[in-house]
Every structure is written in structure tokens, then in C-alpha cells.
User: Fold this.
Amino acid sequence: MSSTDQAGSTPWTRILHLGGDTWLGLVGEALFVGDHENPKREVDRAAPTGLLPCLERPYDVVVAELRTRAGELSLDEGTLIDMVPLDSVPVEAVDSRMDYWIQLALDWLGSMPPDESSEGLLELLSSEAWPTQRARHRARGLLRTRHS
Assistant:
């Protein structure tokens, strides 16, 4: 399940399927997006644009896949979840200002445990003029659900 990176020294270990022939994986402790055989580009944990395709799958499915993969790699259940900045993916989607990603991020925000960051994103989306009307209404609905 792992191969060697382009330099030939550190193994490429796939940890999460992102769709098609695209995978999220590890080279040492660094996260990379790559194909089945090799890493292609490193993921910036602070701005994980390469992880936006995760939003195309339900949050719970992504978390379950990371837990399963951790077990396959003989790691503690939460190890990969802690390594992958899943909480930053909706932030990156909103920062993109692309309605496609924002709608998918709202799906995730409805499934993720509430926290200060997700509340802030929902408040931003519900109060600013730039999101689409659909995004504003969905964000308001999620805020109402959380506060009831």
C-alpha cells in the first residue's frame, strides 16, 4: 500500500481516497496529495486547498475511512484524524468564495461537532453579502439548529 517517493528514500503511504486516482497520503509526517504510486504536492495544513475534494464525501465517511486506515497501519484510531486538518477544510472552502465548495462545507458543518471555528464560519456566511442567498439561508438554519 505504500511506495517510495520521487527521491527514493521515504515511503508514500496512502491514507484517504480523494476520488479518481487522487489520494491523500503521508511522506514521513508530511501530508501530500498524489496518485496511487507517488506523492505529487504537499498539503499546507494551514490552508489545505488540496483537501477540498474531501468535501465531496460525507464528513462521517471521511472520518470512518481515516479510522479504518489507521487500524490497517497499526496506528491508534485517532492518529490519522489528528494528522489531517479536517476542521480547516470548511474554512478553506469558505475562503475560496466558490459556492460549490461552500455548499459542500455547509454539509460538513452540519455533521461536524460544533466548535468556535464552525460557529464563526456559519455566522460569517449568514451575515455577509457576498455568499449566495442559498448559502446564507443554510448557514442561518444550521445556527438555529445548534442554538435550539
In short: Confidence is low (pLDDT under 50) at residues 1-7. The CA atoms of residues 1 and 77 lie 18 Å apart. The chain has one domain: 44-147. The longest strand covers residues 11-19.
